[in-house]
């Protein structure tokens, strides 16, 4: 018997796989920049979970996605002048190479959002047919208030979200709480044809479509960083359970805590940090070590500076540095000899 803690219920329960193998889905990275230590953390955490499950005799089908089309990728593409596809490919390959160096087992599959567009469109069409989603101005939105238990994972009340953070406001929405399933194309952005016009998928729908396509309508474990609980995983639950008509979407929701170094917090997606404007890390670098897994140029940290200003080695009674033998002597004996030499009269002195 194996007990796991479920984020949704807050309780430990026995893991009983739905099928012959454990269906594990882990939210992967959005490769708009170099991987950081927060990415390494969640990768290792769920690698350990998978290894333990296999050691206990469970078969594991492990799926981890790449969100290779997203607002952040498009923004970074415009900033650097690099095509979105090239940017995503370069950082995805670098991340995979780093996983190998960390001895993390490869997942069973690494689906990419851009390769799942037909499945995503089919998923959205199903939600529209059920009446829980609607098209507006080339976009498609999910009706949050149609899901009676929305907020159950993050323990939030729908009515309190109106003025809350991370609620995207748009004139095209029927309700400010509704979130985008499909975004109409804008000039200079990658896009695909759809029943609602050219556009691209929203962030949340990508994971639901990939999870259902790779693992089925219900899965055993859905994992990711704690910063994904709301709104990402909350929205995944809503749209997935609305589409399949089955609950729960995942038997267990598991989240690793955020990694904090010194005064800065590593977030896997948002890239935000604490209010501190200066980050001195344990590695002694001027920028947060979470910014990249690559080695950066080291500079003295405050602790290193303190170490560098230590006093020179104490001198013995004859004005020279102590010998190794003297340094190895017990401190108490050494102190006694030094005191005797200091206090004894010198024959060459005059009164």
What does it look like?
It is a single chain. The chain has helices spanning 37-55, 71-80, 84-101, 117-129, 203-215, 229-244, 302-308, 324-328, 331-343, and strands at residues 3-5, 12-14, 21-26, 59-64, 133-136, 139-142, 179-184, 199-201, 219-225, 250-256, 259-261, 264-266. The strands form four sheets. It has a four-stranded parallel beta sheet, sandwiched between helices. Strands 5-6-7-8 form a four-stranded antiparallel beta sheet. Strands 1-2 form a two-stranded antiparallel sheet. Helix 4 packs across helix 5 and helix 5 packs across helix 6 (229-244). By secondary structure, it is α/β, with parallel strands linked by helices. It contains nine helices and twelve strands. The model is unreliable at 268-300 and 308-312 (pLDDT under 50). The chain is 32% helix and 16% strand.
């Amino acid at each position: 018997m194996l007990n796991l803690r479920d984020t949704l219920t807050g309780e430990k329960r026995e893991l009983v796989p739905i099928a012959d193998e454990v269906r594990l889905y882990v939210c992967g990275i959005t490769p708009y920049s170099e991987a950081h230590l927060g990415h390494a953390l969640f990768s290792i955490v769920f690698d350990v979970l998978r290894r333990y499950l296999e050691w206990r005799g469970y078969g594991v089908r492990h799926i981890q996605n790449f969100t290779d089309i997203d607002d952040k990728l498009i923004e970074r593409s415009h900033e650097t002048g690099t095509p979105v596809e090239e940017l995503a490919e370069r950082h995805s390959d670098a991340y995979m190479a780093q996983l190998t160096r960390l001895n993390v087992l490869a997942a069973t599959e690494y689906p990419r959002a851009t390769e799942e567009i037909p499945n995503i469109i089919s998923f959205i069409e199903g939600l529209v047919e059920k009446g829980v989603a609607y098209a507006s101005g080339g976009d498609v939105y999910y009706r949050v208030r149609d899901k009676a238990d929305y907020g159950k994972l993050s323990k939030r009340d729908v009515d309190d979200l109106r003025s809350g953070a991370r609620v995207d406001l748009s004139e095209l929405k029927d309700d400010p709480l509704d979130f985008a399933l499909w975004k109409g194309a804008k000039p200079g952005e990658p896009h695909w044809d759809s029943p609602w016009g050219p556009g691209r998928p929203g962030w949340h729908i990508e994971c639901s479509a990939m999870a259902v396509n790779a693992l089925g309508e219900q899965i055993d474990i859905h994992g990711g960083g704690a910063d994904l609980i709301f709104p990402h995983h909350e929205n995944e639950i809503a749209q997935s359970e609305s589409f399949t008509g089955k609950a729960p979407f995942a038997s267990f929701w598991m989240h690793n805590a955020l990694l904090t170094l010194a005064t800065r917090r590593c977030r896997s997606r948002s890239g935000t940090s604490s209010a501190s404007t200066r980050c001195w890390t344990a590695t002694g670098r001027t920028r947060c070590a979470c910014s990249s897994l690559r080695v950066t140029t080291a500079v003295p940290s405050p602790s290193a500076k303190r170490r560098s200003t230590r006093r020179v080695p104490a001198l013995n009674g004859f004005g020279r540095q102590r010998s190794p033998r003297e340094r190895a002597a017990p401190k108490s004996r050494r102190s006694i000899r030094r005191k005797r030499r200091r206090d004894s009269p010198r024959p060459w002195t005059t009164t």
